[in-house]
Amino acid sequence: MSSEKLHNVISKVLGVSPSEITDQSGPETIERWDSFNSLVLVDELESEFKIKFSVAEITDVKNVADIKRHLRNHGITFS
Amino acid sequence: MEEKLSHYINKAKTLDVKQYEKTVRVAVLSSFTLNGLEETLRVKCSDLNVNCITFVSGYNQYNQEIFNEKSKLYEFKPDITFLTLDIRDILGKVFYNPYSHTAEERKEIITKKINELKNLIGTFTQNSKSKLVLSNSKNPDYSPYGIVETKMDYGIYSMIADFNSRLAEYIKNQQSVYLYDFNAFVNRFGENNVFDYRQFFIGDIRIAFDFIPALANDLIGFVKPLLGLNKKCIVLDLDNTLWGGVVGEDGFDGISLGDSSPGNAFVEFQQRILSLWKRGIILAINSKNNPDDALQVIKKHPAMILREECFGAIRINWNDKVSNLKELSSELNIALNSMIFVDDDPVNREMIKMQLPEVLVLDLPDDPSQYAKCITQLTDFNVLSVTEEDLDRGKMYFEQKQRTAFEKSITSLDDFLKQLNIKIKIKNANEFTIPRISQLTLKTNQFNLTTHRYQEEEIRRFASDKSTMIGCAQIEDKFGDNGITGVFIVKKEKEIWEIDTFLLSCRVMGRGIENGILGYLLGKAKSDGVKFVKGTFIPSKKNMPCQTFLEDSGFNKKDSEWIFDLNNVIKVPKHLTVSAE
């Protein structure tokens, strides 16, 4: 799977354009990425990818690369 | 389909700065994180053409906000305040280990907590005019005692049930306080869905994101009646809506309506509608059909629940549904924005949405088995109090239909009025009439000189104020009791009385009743030694019908005011009687 679907979800929840999103994007680079919105993001990702993250996974996320890593644990791979 | 929470959070940021029809100030207080609710409320209110201005208290700050009379909450001056407390916060450790205490102690704990809440509610109502909506607790679904929990004397299940019932009992008698049945909300969606442990641990969220929009719908169910946005009338299609199939093609015996599937879904749907009719919602029919075929089903079909007397007005014909709906609105004297249109045909629904956008069009699901659920989920019939008039309204509209038929059978209006035998009974504002008086000031648009809107508390204040005369009129005629349908509020000074409010429900307009009530009022002023009565007409979008009322009644214009000189003759119509209690 390409990163497009993931970037679209992040874009929708955090109000940034998908093209601005990189693996390094995180709370420092995206203004609306606060602790509450990171939970909203988790909720959207779970619906989109039909998976459930654990609390450990959720609290570990510091940037987009971390999200990808945890999605891979749930069988979602990125090309 | 309900949208996800992020949809509302994002949309709230882009809400148009537009002229809204109405504004409501909403405060949200809770003992846990309810982020996202505020945004959802604003978006959903905007969809109703309501500008929702919100105040959200800091995390778990509800006590400070309520007990400090100079708090930001009171400064905000909310119209309505939602207070949601989690039983975990109320009971603390007792929630986990109720059995560290004896049954006697557990009872005392609940009594103490109820008293604390009463104190909180009392402080709030003293400091604010806002309506207060307090949530009850969800019933627990776990006890360390397992199956013998129910054998315990005042166990944790009983504690919380008792807490809820005592809270409800207390709130029942509080004028401006309402209970939100959060337990019913959790029943509807299920504890395992509504409570997400992960969101709880990470963000102290006790209502999972996916259910915030549904919660907002329920809470807006309190806002709608506060703003007079509640619906009064359901306009129903017949074929494939009240029964399955098309009566014109399938015949009387061929339609689906009865004890077994698929006909039982329509019976269930009709039962739900009947229960709404019984509490005062008006029903009407708008159907493309051969009237004889359709009426035969309504009158004779053994499984039919809604019979002819349930319908205040009927349009069964081949005309287009838009003009039928407009006719129903004028026949019933119910504004289009108080109507809900129910039709299985998406094309008809789209046509109404396009041409009569003020009508609420119910998006009926394709599968009739979902009809009953669809109608029971509406929060648009909510009222803040139920009056006797509400309960009898369905019958009153049927009587009105008979009145109209009678009017048509008589050629002159004078003869009609004489034979109607109208009796006006003037009543004081008291415990029985105050809710109805408030309701009339909130809902009456057409015959309303000033359109001042008053909540029950304000009416109560007028009633106890000696310099104000407030009363209402109950109207009876040969066809039955119309209930309380007129209200007047007069500010009294020594020489001059000023009419603050004078209104008449549209269903009794045009029968000289307004003149009867005004005549009574002027007579009363005269006998009190008053010299002048002053009236004002404040034009609104809808009160054209009473534009010339003051002038026609002998008031003379001085600047922007209308003055009646009590030396002049007071005219009272001869075809009716006026009596006061």
Describe the fold and architecture.
The complex is a heterodimer of chains A (79) and B (581). Chain A contains four helices and no strands. With 79 residues, chain A is an all-alpha fold. In chain A, helix 1 crosses helix 2 (35-49). The longest helix of chain A has 15 residues, at 35-49. Chain A starts with a helix and ends in a 6-residue tail after the last helix. Chain B is an alpha/beta fold. Chain B is 42% helix and 19% strand. The interface between A and B is medium-sized, with 16 and 17 residues.
Outline of the structure:
The complex is a heterodimer of chains A (79) and B (581). Chain A is an all-alpha fold and 79 residues long. Helices cover 53% and strands 0% of the residues of chain A.
List the helices and strands and how they pair.
The complex is a heterodimer of chains A (79) and B (581).
Chain A: H1 4-14, H2 35-49, H3 55-60, H4 64-73
Helix pairs in contact in A: 1-2
Chain B: H1 5-13, E1 22-30, H2 37-47, E2 50-56, H3 62-67, H4 72-76, E3 80-84, H5 87-91, H6 93-96, H7 103-127, E4 131-135, H8 156-172, E5 177-180, H9 182-189, H10 191-194, H11 197-203, H12 212-226, E6 233-236, H13 247-250, H14 263-278, E7 282-288, H15 291-300, E8 311-317, H16 321-332, E9 339-342, H17 346-355, E10 360-361, H18 371-376, H19 388-409, H20 413-420, E11 422-428, H21 434-443, E12 447-448, H22 456-464, E13 468-477, E14 480-492, E15 496-504, H23 513-527, E16 532-535, H24 549-552, E17 556-558, E18 561-565, E19 576-580
Parallel strand pairs in B: 1-2, 1-3, 3-4, 4-5, 6-7, 6-9, 7-8, 9-10, 11-19, 15-16
Antiparallel strand pairs in B: 11-13, 12-15, 13-14, 14-15, 16-18, 17-18
Helix pairs in contact in B: 1-2, 2-12, 7-8, 21-22
Number of strands of chain A: 0
Unreliable parts of chain B? none
**What's the count of strands of chain B?**
19
Helicity of chain B, as a percent range: 40-55%
Q: What amount of the residues of chain A lies in strands?
A: under 5%
Work out the oligomeric state of the chains in this entry.
Answer: heterodimer
Q: Output mean pLDDT of chain B.
A: 93
Count of discrete alpha- or pi-helical segments spanning 4 or more residues of chain A? 4
Low-pLDDT stretches of chain A are none
- The amount of beta strand of chain B, in percent, is 15-25%
Question: Count of helices of chain B?
Answer: 24
Q: What would you report as the Rg of chain A, rounded to the nearest angstrom? A: 11 Å
For the record, give the distance between the C-alpha atoms at the N and C termini of chain B, rounded to a whole number.
Answer: 54 Å
